[in-house]
Design goal:
This is Aminopeptidase. The protein has 17 helices and 14 strands. The protein is an alpha+beta fold.
Amino acid sequence: MSKEIEFNKIEEFASDFGKCKKRLNSQRAVIKNGILEPSENHYSKVLNTPVFSIDLETGNVSNQKQSGRCWMFAALNTFRHDIAMKFKMKDFELSQNYTFFWDKFEKANYFYENILGTAGEELTSRKVSFLLQTPQQDGGQWDMLVALIQKYGIVPKEVMPETHSSSASGVLNTYLNKKMRKDAIRLRQLVSENANEEQLQEEKKKMLAGIYSILATSLGTPPTEFDYEYRDADNEYHIEKGLTPRSFYDKFIGEDLNEYISVINAPTADKPYNQMYTVEMLGNVVGGKEVRHLNVDMPTFKELAITQLKAGESVWYGCDVGQSSTRDTGIMATDIYDVDSTLSVDFSMTKAERLDYGESLMTHAMVLTGVNIVDNHPTKWKVENSWGDKVGTKGYFVMSDSWMDEYTYQIVVRKEFLSEELKKVVQDDHVTLLDPWDPMGALA
């Protein structure tokens, strides 16, 4: 039986608070400055200076602006690092708008197919509610970008530059989701009227034509063929004629993206280590690469990241960036704020508890470009963000190793760096299917 709060309890709480000098001191500081400023630990900044024993040259940072494309920026940044080095390009970027267009177009089709697949369920079912809550959004996963590149290729930023709606995507998302929810009404209605597959697909085709029109109006028309001119770092002129997005990828990147694997650290009871997982209704390209994760313990997780960095290759990674971090100075450290002392409350939870109880999940993707190794152990990590160069150290952040333990959930590494045991796990056909709302299905 529910029980109300009694006034004598409130009087007791107020009396106890007023008797504690520490709490009154915190009250004065927090009332004037907010919670975080009085809690900031100066010495954490001293421990997390931007100096690293392994430090890759990666150039200027990019800026996703007012959009949720961090996963896309992070992945494209890992590619541009290699392009810039191989072809001596300075300040080179790949078109985030190009992949943004095709991601939203494919997500619409993915949504329609899921609506058709759940049309026999009540609107109040958890799966249908999950789909309708956010038909599409900016976020994504590494494997979703791989699916886009394998189907559509990639282009330089100059070939399909940013637009207002790619840099500030809120309004575009509003109207895409408005249309997709309306389309869901029609698709469910057709299923209830026993429409056949041909009728359903014909109706879906009309809906996709509308999606394409919205995207082309907002983001521009994706190029199918183009010439690409550039001057390299030695000021030598180059021109590549008659490129397609696929041939550009083959010439300038050429990596077999199937040779990379998403590795996660999810220490929850429902996800034993050294097993493969996928998430129901998570993806963008129907028939494209499936999102798959290999769950490992944190020592293995960090060893894989370090191995790839030592090989001279940056690492895509996903984390909960809002936890215990400063945006202006770019410090991610478990001790950067001591809010527990400021508010006299114990906020501690284990990583598993945070995942199980909705306190944390992957919210942002960035790139590991360095690590500091002292006495064979990592102490801090260099992070390339995509929030422009006005934050952190010219856009680069520092992540303490303890923060990596607590709030980092995903990296992408070459399969060749896996142990023989883990290679066998990846090659095995057994993959555990997780619910659509599982935290490992969070979109960065």
